[in-house]
Amino acid sequence: MPDLLVDIDAAGGFATLTFNRPDKLNAYTGEMGALLHGNLAELERDDRVRAIIVTGAGRAFCAGADLSGGAGVFASDRNFAAAASPEAKARPWNLGKPIIAAINGPAVGIGATLPLQWDIRLCSDRAKLGFVFTRRGIAPEMLSTWLLPRIVGFSRAMELLVTGRIINADEMLAAGLVSRIVPHDDLLRVAQDTAREIARDTAPASVAAVKRLLWRQLMDSDPRIALFRETEVFNWLGKQPDASEGVRAFLDKRAPAWTMTARDDAPHTSNLPELPPDLGEG
Question: Is the model's pLDDT at 178 over the cut of 60?
Fold first, then answer.
């Protein structure tokens, strides 16, 4: 069996990626990373897929890096080299489709940092999470030192990262690491319902634009620039065919027939100017 399972529900409009090393608590390998990011890139190009769920097989989400290679596992560049190229081509914050983490059990090390890069995080009431890097003599990765303070605040991020403490689902919710705790047996269904809601009720290009805009705004400290970028995206989308269709469908009391795609038609906020010439000093 492959280390990552891929299931596309074309009728529901979503795909599910499942870490599939349950006997190893889904311990992460370079090969698994290559499969994960390679499939994220493929699903980004698949117009049948409007949202992507990532979860784990068995009782764990991901128990961190596979340490079976022994004491030198983190010293070898080869261990994760397989994932480097696919990962660079499929940075989650650049993709136009929401990624939903369904954290079904222990999420440790890279199993905790990877979901920070995704867009919606749900967890089982059995989930536990730990940024255990300092307890293994290494430092956090996967952009977690940049993302975690923005998600939970500086002091709480510092505490979680320097202590490496394992926290439970209630603590994850209180910290803002997840948006919902779900009874364990209902987790995948709730993640699927969320994905179906996106696929059924929203315009693909609009969702992609909002996702990219939110991620881009994390980099801004000047509200004038953030407002400019937001206004540019709003004005551009307002002139597109899906905006007209959304209004007509609402007035006609029918489901909209979107014609724009996340892949080809969503605006990329990275293409907007950083500072318009007439922004002024105020």
Answer: yes
